[in-house]
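Blackboard transcription, Thursday session:
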Amino acid sequence: DAGITQSPRHKVTETGTPVTLRCHQTENHRYMYWYRQDPGHGLRLIHYSYGVKDTDKGEVSDGYSVSRSKTEDFLLTLESATSSQTSVYFCAISEQPRTSGSSDTQYFGPGTRLTVL
Amino acid sequence: GENVEQHPSTLSVQEGDSAVIKCTYSDSASNYFPWYKQELGKRPQLIIDIRSNVGEKKDQRIAVTLNKTAKHFSLHITETQPEDSAVYFCAARANKFYFGSGTKLNVKP
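(Written on the board underneath:)
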């Protein structure tokens, strides 16, 4: 497995509380992504980053924010958690998805199971 | 944005038979198509990928085909084994990755 860790691995929280999930990589890959996985929906992109302090929205970004102050860390924050955000969250990394000829394979972290009561 | 559809949602085969999973995409700018295998409780793992300048790629029992004109690509697993049982996801990338909803493959011994 690529050097990707996620913390925490499991979390139970209450509606209305803020939650921050952390993704840490040791591969020095430029691109980092946050996905959520729900039954019947596959993996849906929340936000991604193409460099330090450079981020963009994915298809399900409402209610989430991200920050990337260092190459190795990408944080996902649920500003006020809701029950609809109960899900498994995966972080992923890749090198240069926009550059032809370079490796753009995505590698996934182990996931964080979040339950919002 | 891109829309990736994957079929079937579940597939049950006898050990030794072949399995085929199909995906379609909508964005003609998509140029990279990976396939992931996900075992229960584990992370998705890349098993094979194909780029838009290639029509077919094989890796032992696994092959992927791409038809750019029809905007569809398929995963073929031959001589299936019980350890192939998992959920398989296709994906397409234009500027971002878009995933299909997954196929649960069950290989019966």
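Lecturer's comment: The longest strand of chain B covers residues 86-93.
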